[in-house]
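Quick check before the chapter quiz. The format below is the same one you will see on the exam, so make sure you can read both the input and the output lines.
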Amino acid sequence: MVGAVKVISGTAHPELARDICKCLGTDLCRTTVVRFSNENLLVQIDENVREADVFVIQPSCPPVSDGIIELLMTIDALKHASAGRITAVLPYFPYARSDKKDRPRVSITARLMADLLQTAGADRILTMNLHSPQVQGFFRIPADQLQAAPILCDYLRESRDLRNYVLVAGDVGESKDVGHYAARLDLPIAIVDKRRYGDDEAPRAVNLIGDVKGKVALIVDDEVASGGTLVEAARFVLEHGAVAVEACVVHAVLSGKAIERIEASPIRQLVVTDTIPLPAAKRIAKIQVRSVARLFADAIRAIHDGSSVSRLFR
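Here is the expected output.
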């Protein structure tokens, strides 16, 4: 049996870590992170963690590479401090899109991340809404993947009348995930047939499967990065007769000119979670943030107690 729960926050998203601790009724474990003039890092655990059940919270967000190294160093420090069990909590998993060899001589980097976490000393992984389900199979240690659908669907159901809504998958690959929302909300589905040419972040919608005419289109996706897919899908469904467009996304990466694109787009509201920190400059009126802190706290409690995590998927 492992000892008491200890929650450690990396520097990526301390606000989420504090909210998780509030739900758990505990305090963050004290740590020190120092960046030297040569850009090397030092991570020190400032409390006794011997035989403790430690959860390290560090989502992937800018600066991504620094965050990964900091996480690996924290896990290594805990291992050598005789922590009883170490769980890496990655609300947004790094390099999740690099899940296959889709061109010659490239790294399957999501698998590399899984290997690095295990090599550093992680005993298990807790994450949310992986870009591709096969990423979970890259781990040779226990890996739990939470789903944000219950949180987002509860908000959608409580905040609006959904009788004239249709769920829209931004591309064919997202259609299966949209099915989870459709089952919970009892709504029809439409799919945008999108093609991407090269790495220019400029997808092209070429066809629409399903009917959106006269309905409010609610675009669902696992993440929004540059905003290109989301805005193109919004434009496309309006051209096909939708009366309004809203969007619901788990991971608000919002890189590059995403905020400007969304602000100028016809999307009237974008609902996201706080798996990634959203700076004040990106908190525009169109964006509504829902917290995943309680769900992660419940998962941490279940892992520590040895009770079922799968009940949280329902």
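If your answer matched, good. The helical segments are 14-24, 64-80, 109-120, 149-159, 175-185, 228-239, 258-264, 293-305.
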